[in-house]
Amino acid sequence: MIGRLNHVAIAVPDLEAAAEQYRNTLGAEVGPAQDESEHGVTVVFITLPNTKIELLHPLGEDSPINGFLQKNPSGGIHHICYEVDDIRAARDQLVASGSRVLGSGEPKIGAHGKPVLFLHPKDFQGCLVELEEV
Amino acid sequence: MIGRLNHVAIAVPDLEAAAEQYRNTLGAEVGPAQDESEHGVTVVFITLPNTKIELLHPLGEDSPINGFLQKNPSGGIHHICYEVDDIRAARDQLVASGSRVLGSGEPKIGAHGKPVLFLHPKDFQGCLVELEEV
């Protein structure tokens, strides 16, 4: 069912400093900051040869990242995203096997303009797992 | 400096259950469990089309994963590993820019038989970062 690892998302307290570190200290290809107001985050994508790192920073008081950064003030790895061919078929199969989908269970459009869903961390070794249809 | 994302490591309380979930529920290619006694872990590698997931389980009472699982009983994402061409050159450049290397600072041989180093999470947005020479 799962295909490529689309990205690893890292929540960061200082987006500018994190982007600068990946660009200058780690020598990676770092894109511009993009506000994703419907998701309550500002994101910076880092393009590695085989996958992406997504730096996440809260946008607005209701950002889903605020609680994570309160618990992890230095930042931390927030989620991993696997690609799937058919997100509704993947969801139905996962739900049938007892896994929980966060929110309404209906895919939303994610930061790449593709349908995404998040799975319950308690059902996946404590990891927040995003599925993205590609 | 950094190249491919070599793997994402997930610490898990039940290695058998996690491997079974990736194999049967998520339909991924899951390898056999391997004891890495010098690192205090048992690992299972999951091969995705573009990178790997490393499931980590403590091996022995001094395992470096024990503390993590005490804080995160359901498990969680433990570290990410970036590939570098020359690990000593990468280390020297990082140390010169103020980053801290864990342990003695000398590379050890990792689970893939290649030299590895770990960087201080406080210097990298709360993420434990492994570098592996390829």
From TrEMBL, chains A, B:
Catalytic reaction equation(s): (R)-methylmalonyl-CoA = (S)-methylmalonyl-CoA
Originating species: Poseidonocella pacifica
InterPro entries, per database record: Glyas_Bleomycin-R_OHBP_Dase, MeMalonyl-CoA_epimerase, MMCE/EMCE_epimerase, VOC_core
UniProt keyword annotation of Secreted present: no
SUPFAM superfamilies, per database record: Glyoxalase/Bleomycin resistance protein/Dihydroxybiphenyl dioxygenase
Keywords associated with the record: Cobalt, Isomerase, Metal-binding
Domain VOC: 4-134
GO molecular function, one term: methylmalonyl-CoA epimerase activity
Protein name as annotated: methylmalonyl-CoA epimerase
Enzyme Commission number(s) of this protein: 5.1.99.1
Catalytic class of the enzyme: isomerase
Gene3D superfamilies found in the cross-reference section: 2,3-Dihydroxybiphenyl 1,2-Dioxygenase, domain 1 (3.10.180.10)
Annotated family: Belongs to the methylmalonyl-CoA epimerase family.
CDD domains found in the cross-reference section: MMCE
NCBIfam families for the chain: metmalonyl_epim (TIGR03081)
GO terms (BP aspect): L-methylmalonyl-CoA metabolic process
